[in-house]
Amino acid sequence: MSAVSFSSADYVLGLQCLAALWLKKRRPGSAAKGGQAGYWQGDGLKEIAYFKGAARVEAPPWTPEAAEETAELAQAGRRAISQAAAVTPKGDFAAADFLKPRPQGGFDLFAIRAGATVKEHHYLPLAFQYHIFSSRYSIERVFILRLNPGYVRLGEIEPRKMFRKTEVTAVVKEMAAGIPRRLAAWRRTLARNTPPKAGPNQHCKPCLYRGGCWPAEREIPDYSLFSVLSPEKAEAIYKKHKTADLRELPALPLSLQKRDEVECWREGGLIKKPKEIRAFLQQLRWPLYFLDYETIAPAVPLFEGARPLEQIPFQFSLYIQERPGGRTSHQGYLHQKIGDPRPALTKSLLAAIGRTGSIIVYNRNFEKSCHENLAEASPGQARALLALNGRLVDLFLPFQKRILYSHLQAGSASLKKVCLAFFGRKYEALEIGNGAEASTSYLAFQRGALNKGEQKKLFSNLKAYCGLDTQVMVDLVKVLEKHAS
Ligand code: SF4
């Protein structure tokens, strides 16, 4: 086996599960396809010129050339270096968003994060970066540049206003202290021809190496200990009882709702509370409007007046049912031009949605914030848009609160799971569809990165996908009606 080298992604993976790291390095073919789509909502962040006149490393990231170029730039001047890289003598490597020389000597490291707050998981890759860069440079301070949620784009992006700077030197230094010993131990483990023993843990569900890790595949059923308890609690119980199968475990410390849910799963049955279902249905006011939005939330605001990570609706689908038992009609809007979708979408929505009647949505908070964001963008229509929030009825709640619950939901109240539980394969396209992917592709379109053929395909997928969500909601109200007595 050739010498192993580690990146920050490897480091985080190894901390989560050493077996996963072994599989990544020794059997790279065992990884399932997945992970980050090519284009994401944070694209463009790294291009922001936070430091005026920063020198950019042009060599491809993660290469020895990038590390050499960084060293040359660091030696040559006093400018900040963007996309800096460093490699240790053992070949471990890391990249940093900025490496900035300090007037009094030494350097500061900066990492851009596409979030408004500094989270625990930000520290681990930073500690690794600090460890790698410290092997070559004297790193004095480490900072996270996080998005300022209060920033509003007016004209050109103003990087100093869009980011907030947080110093994390102390915690990062402390976390980095154990890295050399840990990497040495990992090298020994990775040199073995069999993967280290790793019982199922909180990282197994999304693990890309699950297919190559037969014990986890066999021991964690789809609905398991890990579905009913927090990852940490579930992991502790698994370690004690050596099984994740709910049929084999003794009574667990579950809430009343979770206990009912597990019972329902054991019996392969249905929970239904007709009185509560009737109370839900009685709040509906006719005509009914079934509404769903597709949105983008770019980290770098694309449009005037928008904030970082603001949900920007670019499509809506609306089914309208005038009276009980009546037919439904459909209206919708998809913005197919490059540029701000909000004004045209708002006009079309307000023309279609009427002034009275319940607006049925699946997860009210999302639609509520869409209306608030649209209202900010169109002050002239703000009253009408905000009035929509008073008419929202959340269809998610009866399923989430287990007023109506099928064992086939397997602990989830997502539209996909509920749909599968009550309609089987009727809405198969919804099963396959992926809202997040549609959203990132639409963002790529707005950034001018799609050709005509790709645009056509995207628009046709979006029309099919968004319409389907609302159609499912129409049918779910019928399901509730059926179970109301
Ligand atoms: S499935 Fe679980 S135990 Fe197996 S490699 Fe992945 S995280 Fe580790």
Query: Largest sheet, if any?
Result: 6 strands, mixed
Number of domains: 2
Nearest-integer average pLDDT: 88
Distance between the termini: 67 Å
Global structural class: alpha/beta
* Helix content estimate: 40-55%
Number of strands: 13
As residue ranges, the low-confidence spans are 35-39
Give the overall form.
globular
Global Rg? 26 Å
Q: Please give the CATH class of the largest domain.
A: Alpha Beta
Residue share in β-strands = 15-25%
Instruction: Give the helix tally.
Output: 20
- Which strand order do you get reading across the main beta sheet? 1-2-3-4-5-6
The CATH architecture of the largest domain can be given as 2-Layer Sandwich
Compact description:
By secondary structure, this protein is α/β, with parallel strands linked by helices. It contains 20 helices and 13 strands.
Features:
Nucleotidyltransferase, domain 5, Lambda Exonuclease, Chain A, 485 residues, 2 domains, 16% strand, binds iron/sulfur cluster, alpha/beta, 5-stranded mixed β-sheet
Write the SSE topology.
Blueprint: H1 8-16, H2 18-26, E1 55-56, H3 64-76, E2 81-87, E3 93-101, E4 107-113, H4 120-134, E5 139-147, H5 159-162, E6 163-167, H6 169-176, H7 179-191, H8 214-219, H9 225-228, H10 231-241, H11 256-267, E7 270-272, H12 274-282, E8 288-296, E9 312-321, E10 328-334, H13 342-352, E11 359-361, H14 364-377, H15 382-389, E12 392-394, H16 396-400, E13 404-406, H17 415-423, H18 428-432, H19 435-446, H20 452-482
Bound molecules: iron/sulfur cluster.
The site of iron/sulfur cluster has 14 residues, from helix 2.
